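Appendix B. Chain record.
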Amino acid sequence: MRILVVGSGGREHALCWSIAASPLTDKLYCAPGNAGIAAEAECVPVAADDLRGLVDFAVEARIDFVVVGPERPLTLGLVDRLEAAGVKAFGPSAEAAQLEGSKGFMKDLCARHGIPTAAYGRFTNAGAAKAFVAERGAPVVVKADGLAAGKGVIVAESLAEAEAAIDAMLTERRFGEAGTAIVVEEFLAGEEASFFALVDGTTALPLASAQDHKRVGDGDTGSNTGGMGAYSPAPNVDAAMADEIMARIVTPTVAAMAAEGRPFKGVLYAGLMLTGEGPKLLEYNVRFGDPECQVLCVRLMSDLLPALIAARDGVLGSLDLRWHDRTALTVVMAAKGYPGDTVKGTEIRGLEAAAALPDVTIFHAGTRRAADGRLLADGGRVLGLTALGATVAEARARAYRAVEMIDWPDGFCRRDIGRRAARTRG
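Structure tokens predicted for this chain:
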């Protein structure tokens, strides 16, 4: 098969790494790709949100199957346009992608179908939102309704912080179009977890669990980011918890979307809070997480490509997946200043030696090659150093050993990815 992966981040590098290994793959392209992806696929200079350019390329290159990585082209309707042009594609339609494209839509769907989530209100007026917060009290969570690259969520510990967050979104338009409407919801206490399932419109096939680290600083301090690290499996999602998540959240969501005429196909990524009352849904993403995709891909023993095709074709019920019982852990290296302004074009050295370490794979998230061959940073999150180990502690030690071999004075990483799990689980 001739395969096209859309995107340019660490998630897409992990997908290309997995798909390139499939015996079904004859030719692999990635649009636009990055310096690391170029080792797995032929990169083509078409932006991930250039829908017309992507469809034209897929038709001209006789692509058999397209895997769409990022959320933006999904919400813009790339899968709809590819399918209309006769090109098979993995991912939800634009209507189904509203599960991520609008947090308000997701919350309303949960309310209509009894899917457990935090109490909430939807607002476009700052005064009304502040009145809601004053009535409920703090802490509360203020979320931009639209896509904000993982950064449009503010946990407000006080009324003053909540009002400032509301003003930042609705008055100052700090998150642009994503913040023209907001969701204000109750703060849920518990442990966070990420849960993934492949969905074919009616059937959901659970994948392995993962734990993300969203805050930029050690000890879960600082701003929210797209993700500074992850590990899989998540110790707090055992078999019984996975069954409960499927029964109470994922399966009812798939049924609800089908009942409302928006059948969901693709990856359903549930961000969860495990509370004293059971799992509750924080948010849905409609694509693989980043960096969770990296840890899932290195743990997956089965061929990923047939599973993606089965999801698109509606035949997941006959599929089973096998996973390594080892732990995978990813440490993200980002450019200094992330998640704010960063400087692009700084040189990165030492990757070859780090990648040669046993059970270590380096996924590129934001890199490019200079004309003279030097590897340069080209984004906020730049590298995902991923390691396998018999335990969390072993995987963690290997990943950080790789970090120490990277010579990049303009980069940084969190130093506590997986630390708590390593202490409790070894």
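Further analysis of this model is presented in Appendix C.
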